[in-house]
Amino acid sequence: MNFLVVDHVSHTYFTEKAAVTALENVSLEIEKGEFVSFLGPSGCGKTTLLSIIAALIQPTKGSVILEGEKVHSIHPSVGYMLQQDYLFPWKTIEENILLGLTIMGMNSNEAKQRALDLLSRIGLKGVETYYPNQLSGGMRQRAALVRTLATDPKILLLDEPFSALDYQTKLKLEELVWKTLKEYKKTALLVTHDIGEAIAMSDRIFLFSAKPGRLVRTFIVPKELRNLSPFHSRNHTTFSELFQFIWKELDSLEANE
Amino acid sequence: MKQTNNQIQVLHEQYVIRLKQEKRWVRFFQLLIFVAFFSLWEIASRNHWIDPLLFSSPSTIWKLFVQKIADGSLVSHTGITLGETIIGFMLATFAGTFFAALLWWFPRLSKIVDPYLVILNAMPKVALGPIFIVALGPGFTSIIAMGTIISLIITTIVVYTSFKEVDPNYIKVLKTFGASRFQCFKEAVLPSSFPTIISTLKVNVGLSWVGVVVGEFLVSKQGLGYMIIYGFQVFNFTLVLLSLLVIAFLATIMYQIVGWIERKLIKNR
Ligand SMILES: Nc1ncnc2c1ncn2[C@@H]1O[C@H](COP(=O)(O)OP(=O)(O)O)[C@@H](O)[C@H]1O
Ligand SMILES: [Mg+2]
């Protein structure tokens, strides 16, 4: 049985001026423990699809099925990480990473301790009493990851989590996030418009086209890359082959428009 | 290397000295204006360049001040006005924030009452004074109502606007954890609006003084506003000016206290 099924999902936004179809008839399946990427130009409905999977919005048509059950309302098994860290500036790092636990009423000492342990595992020991503006962009995004993982979700939705970072920080964080998620055996769904990032991090890549957002192709990342960490994956010969291949595919998509 | 370090240190010291000098000059001129103003007033009054009956003089005001302190009347009038102002200003801030929260909670309500808020805000609130006195009686309650109403509407509007402008992504973060509407309000909407609430406090301090003093004009029983109107009626302008100076002094102190609270509360942003 599939872990997550997106079944014929369409979504249209209604505004006073127009009805914008952000997604059209998207169907896909994700296995437990898989790391997949949604790749596509901006405006192709990637964020919309994540919001639908997280049940933040209801699709106009179709449904999302998680572990055999239709998703109706916000589900504790789903963790969502936004494009920017959105740490609350008036809370300390500790208060920030415990936010999800507090909201869900799961703030047992055990859970708190696990979150704090995770914080130090991820290289942020000793910043618990700091405020977010005292941390660098990369550190903040790591704290945001801890906040998302603290509630122990089964699937992680990552919406362009590295796009606001400088290149070097981004590479380091890709590495860290990949290793952390593999270690905790999390299923993950990464949204990106960076081909390299998609190849380096994921097992499968879903390619979307814009206006309206459609799933056009699925690429399976070769085995030899899948088991390598993002950094090593980028140095592998297969990497650039796949990169070229996807690049051409994206190019022809744009040409067809 | 060491030499350049020394040089930089010397330059830095010079820079700090210049900053200090600048500060001293500013202080000096501020003091100069103060002293010049009161001296000129005193001299002008003594030499009858201005009518001492109308404009009094610092020394006469001082004598009256000492006398009024001694008989206890200044302290009691000041205490009453200060109390009314603080209550009015707190009521306006809390009630305004509460109304803003209601509007945020019920978006349809906010759409419905929007034009009425605009009308109420545009209206000169002190004109409501006589109505308060008729409705609430000529006393304490009416005066506090004046001190409150004068800043209540604007507080509601400003705080509500800031509630609405909270970055929706903070709310999205909370919602992904399944937060209720109340949790969203408590964790994101309210705290991110604190700076706005504090800055309305600053405006409200000034406004509440206006409301309370006008209220005391109308009720005319006690307080600094009463002292002004009484002094005016018996042609004792020394009393009027004394009351004015006390109000200016207290309003400044309250403003400073709010400024201090502001620095304490929002140091992390
Ligand atoms: N709240 C909204 N109201 C109206 N249109 C929206 C809204 N959110 C997104 N859209 C539109 O839907 C399309 C897809 O948006 P989005 O899912 O954010 O794409 P992506 O994340 O791939 O950049 C865009 O054309 C965008 O303008
Ligand atoms: Mg997006």
UniProtKB/TrEMBL annotation, chain A:
GO molecular function: ATP binding; ATP hydrolysis activity
Domain of life: Bacteria
Keyword field contains Manganese: no
Keywords: ATP-binding, Nucleotide-binding, Transport
InterPro entries according to UniProt: AAA+_ATPase, ABC_transporter-like_ATP-bd, ABC_transporter-like_CS, ABC_transporter_ATP-bind, P-loop_NTPase
Domain ABC transporter: 4-235
Pfam families attached to this UniProt entry: ABC_tran
Keyword Electron transport: no
Name this polypeptide is given: NitT/TauT family transport system ATP-binding protein
UniProtKB/TrEMBL annotation, chain B:
Predominant location: membrane
Keywords: Cell membrane, Membrane, Transmembrane, Transmembrane helix, Transport
Residue ranges constituting the ABC transmembrane type-1 domain according to the UniProt record: 78-258
Biological process per Gene Ontology, one example term: transmembrane transport
Residues that span the membrane, as ranges: 25-44, 86-106, 118-137, 143-163, 201-219, 239-261
Domain of life: Bacteria
Localization terms from the record: Cell membrane
Keyword Ligase (UniProt): no
A Gene Ontology term for the protein's cellular component: plasma membrane
Pfam families: BPD_transp_1
Membrane topology: Multi-pass membrane protein
This protein's record includes keyword Transmembrane: yes
Record InterPro entries: MetI-like (IPR000515), MetI-like_sf (IPR035906)
Family: Belongs to the binding-protein-dependent transport system permease family.
Name under which the protein is recorded: NitT/TauT family transport system permease protein
